[in-house]
Amino acid sequence: MRCPALAPAVLAAVLFALHCAAATISGRVRDGSGAAVPDALVELSGAVRRAVLADESGAFVFDGLPDGSYRARVVRAGFSEWERVVQTGQAVAVELVPSPVAAYVETASRIPELAVRVPFLLSGVNRDEVEKAGAVTLEDALRSVPGLQHGTQGNAFTRVATRGLRDTADTLVVMDGVPLRQLNGSADLTMVPVQSVQEVEFVKGPASAAYGRSAVGGVMQFFTTPPARRGRSGDIGFGLASFGHRETMGSASLPWRSGRLAASGQLQGADGFQEGVGRDMGAMTLMAEQTVAQRVNLRLHYFLSDVEATRGSIVPLVDGRPAFGVRREDSFGIPDARFDARLHSLTGRADASLSRDVILTHSTNFNRYDRFFTGGITILPPPTVATKGYFENAAVQDTWISDTMLNWRVSGDQLRSTFLGGFTHESGGQDQNSPNFTNAPTFRGPDWTTPVPGPNAANDPRGIRGPVTHSRFEQGIASLYLQERLEYGPFGTTLGLRWDRFDQSLRRSDTGTVAAHVRSRVSPRVGADAVVLDRGGASLVWFGNWVEGFRPQFPALSQQGGLIVPQLLRPEVTRSLESGLRVRSGRWFGQASYFDMKKTDGQRSFRSGPETFVFVNATTRVNGLEAELRSRIGAHTAWAHYAHHNARHIEFRPTLAADFSGFRLRMAPNHIAGAGAMVQILRNVTWSPAINFVGARPLRDNILNPQILPSYTLLSSAVSVDLKQVRFVFAATNLTDVYYIADDFSAQNAGNPGMPRRVSLQVRYRW
């Protein structure tokens, strides 16, 4: 196994070895009335890059700085941004103006940018919103993001669908700057530790120019590192919820003169709402950073996620309703069907300030993803006779990512230029073992526990275990990317370009045939924005973009006419055109955009039998409108969003005899909407109600007259009580106990039920 350049062990060895100069910058953050603003994030960039949270009195201090000038930026949820050039030895007075959304965002271009001027639709969720909503699942945490549909297949394989895209390889998931994905581009969102999430940013539309593959429908970034404070700080919490759910979570930040240690983690267990279906999870983030040699900041970051889950069965559907009154609590799957996975991710990062305006960053990441999962959850409505579809998949994946990036920022009275350029090399390999199972008994409803009489009826429900097929998949990616953000007065442009070269190969032990694939692609992005109105603290900004996403398909080996042959699908390309408006004042923030997106040669797979799939290319088009509105009036906040999606196949021919072109995409509703608030009832009591609506949608798109799943509306409510350093949160989701189908199952006449009514209690203590 190759070792990365600048191995993390080398970074750790020098982490505490060097010292810094002794200059300081201190100050205090207040609002317009003179009241202290605690927990404001204060960032410095110059000879070194540092960040700290203001304390309860609004005070902050940076010690151990090289003498000179720095650009200071202050950000606090609920307030507009503040930015100035300051000198060491200076006492800085910061006055923040109230605002309902975050001032800066990072995910759109991998560097901090003004949220109001980003030429893309971007939504965010902060830690306070997650906590006060009593979030237990990813769906709870993201309910305020417009245009999302959530689903989980059999207690694992969590999915977030947006803009008609529902493949987990269509939206890039990033954890603290590092992609969370398999070699084929898919992301197992089951591994995301919700209770450790400090903040979420979600950029809509293709973003391959900045992030490469998998950023086809957008980028969703989770930040898990606890923010820095002036002194030692942390929290510990406990939670209980319906269906045997229990959790423990905590975080800590330990600063010193020119660096800090930070950690967060959670332990979680649940019995699940389906019979005999539970899940256990443990996750941890560890981070150490140190400023050395006056102009270099080193960071070492480790992330661990471990999930063990049993899998429940799907619900057979007739006319969009459960067949034979099957309850969502019922599980007819094989009892030991499961999903077990462990992810280790280690990142070393160095930021070198070449000057006040130029920063060179190099990061090296190694991650290992070890996953074992089985099938055995397939049941179909009569008269279909089917096996329970058992299979096993044991895979170990190692990935190296090396990224070097240059950020050059120049500011003047009217002109601001931010240049980004870099090189990324990624390599990885996956070993996978899949045994063969034959002669499984068959089942027909409504009795899915008694096999259909025949020669296989007495066999194990999994069938008879046969030879094991070993697969070796290797992938190498080389990328170059450039981006220029130019602002002149009220006008701004963003130009980005990325070149990716993919080298992929797949070998299998049952054949000498190799599926090899080499492909390269250039992915552009063009964005523009203009301040239409800026008066009295309010601004109206127009933004637009034309972007392209690119993703090579995973090579496969298929049997055709009795022969094993390479199956190389054409690489998919997604192009999107979008235009919108963004308005912001001290109390209101709103944005709306119209988009038209076309995915050419996207991979499409569906079951042709209980254990076989058909893979083809399909071209789809999605256009629609997405909008959100947020307000902050005093201590009260509110949000509302609406999305209209028209998602259809332009060309979809799985066989010569079948043509489903023009069909609406499966599980793609025309309408998605939601609204919620955080209302301060008393000084220390906050009520957080929310409502989310998902419209009717077709269960399948590869048959004539598919079943239509009815729309559903979910109501939730939470009350948080703050008593000095302790916070209690009482929450309930799906208050009306709606029985709904949250996800399909590989284009069969069956689906995965959503969560029933759930109540929870969380307690957190902070110091």
Protein model, in words:
It is built from four helices and 46 strands. It is an all-beta fold and 767 residues long. It has a 22-stranded antiparallel β-barrel. It has a five-stranded mixed beta sheet with strand order 10-15-16-13-14. A four-stranded antiparallel beta sheet has the order 3-2-5-6, with no helix packed on it. Helix content is 3%, strand content 59%. 47% of the residues are buried. The chain starts with 7 loop residues before the first helix and ends with a strand. The protein folds into two domains: 1-98, Sandwich (Immunoglobulin-like); 222-766, TonB-dependent receptor, beta-barrel domain (Maltoporin, Chain A).
Cα-atom radius of gyration? 26 Å
Q: What is the percentage of strand-forming residues?
A: over 45%
CATH class of the largest domain: Mainly Beta
Helix content: under 10%
Structural class designation: mainly beta
Instruction: Enumerate the spans where pLDDT stays under 50 for 5 or more consecutive residues.
Output: 1-21
Which oligomeric form is depicted? single chain
Number of helices: 4
Q: What CATH architecture label of the largest domain applies?
A: Beta Barrel
Distance between the termini: 44 Å
Number of strands: 46
Number of domains: 2
- The backbone outline, from C-alpha atoms, is globular
CATH topology of the largest domain: the name is: Maltoporin, Chain A
**Mean of residue pLDDT values:** 88
CATH homologous superfamily heading of the largest domain = TonB-dependent receptor, beta-barrel domain
Biggest sheet descriptor? 22 strands, antiparallel, barrel
